[in-house]
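tmp note - Sensor histidine kinase/response regulator
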Amino acid sequence: MTSSTTSKSASQLDARQERDLKQAVQTLWVRFPGSLEDRYRDYAERRAAKLIQRSLYILIVLFLIVSVPVSLLSDEHNRDLWMAYGVYPIAISLALLFVAVKVDALADWVTTLIGLALMTSLAGTLLGALHLAGTFLGQVAAFETIYVLIIGFSILRLPPTRTLFWCLGSLVVALAVALLQRWDVDPVSLMLFYGFPLVVCALNGYMLDASARGSYANNLLLGRESARLRQWRDNADREALRQRTLNEFMAHIAGNPRVEVLMDQALTFMLERTEAIAGAAYRLDDDRLRQEAARGLNQQARERDNVPVDGLLGGALERGPGVTVRHNVPAGYLDLEIAHGAVRPGELLFLPIWQGDQALGVIELAALEPFDDHTRTLLESLASPLAYALMAAVGREEYIRRHRQEAG
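out:
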């Protein structure tokens, strides 16, 4: 299982699944909650295919080491029978394994082909051991049966219940053929070379599977913890970036500038720090929105000096504090001027400026691509200091205007 798959699975864990996994790893037999059991089975099947792909040539070499010397050196009269039961089925099984892991078109049938290969080889060696009982080659077939069981539960590493199903299926096939052919079946010999080895191999397979389940669960939990730590670190980095940007913004608008200068500075700062490529800043003056600054707008948008508190701007302002976005931008509204002509924005962002219960204005930003969540959060953090600065600037201009009127 790759690290990316582990991270993906870990990130999809909810609190209940995480709690159940922590309880499960404390038990001898790990069972996964809900859909995690299906995920593990898929993982176990992929692991089996990968193990076979890595060990296939070793299995072929082992098969040749056992079969070639016996077939060449043995002068038993029943050698052809042993070849038919103990060599050809295993060769067919190895061919099935080779096709299963090498042909991409059969990727969905890998586990079925592995099971059929195991069943074919076991059925063949069982038939050879039953039919050639009491002979040297019969003993060879019996030992081959044990070897195949060991390989099936320890190397193939399919889920043990599925492996046990294929093994019992081979036993049913072998006994059915033996009964139809009226062979003498010695139950004691069958238990010695098949029954007891099957029980031991199955127990070993379940123990290996329990260990693999524990490792899988621990990997998921570690991935979950890593994802949580990574999220905390990202949150801390974003908070540090937000605070640094806020400090830079406050320094950028400092100096008690006039309203027009203040709004232009704020708009310029927002355009530089976001993906927006155009925008305008409006101040609420009685029941009109007065455009104080504009950047990157076309001629039609720049002429919107006094806008009634309605439409998109008014709707954004009436919703109260907090960023709002508009995906479906009306045709002709705030078209962006680029080298190839006017382009309709992909998304509009409205940042209302409120001081307590008093609306002061709104900033409108346009971008070709949607604004991400980080940008929205960042812009919302700038609204409060901008509102204080705007209140101070408006109050200062009102004071200067009254003073001039009284002086005149």
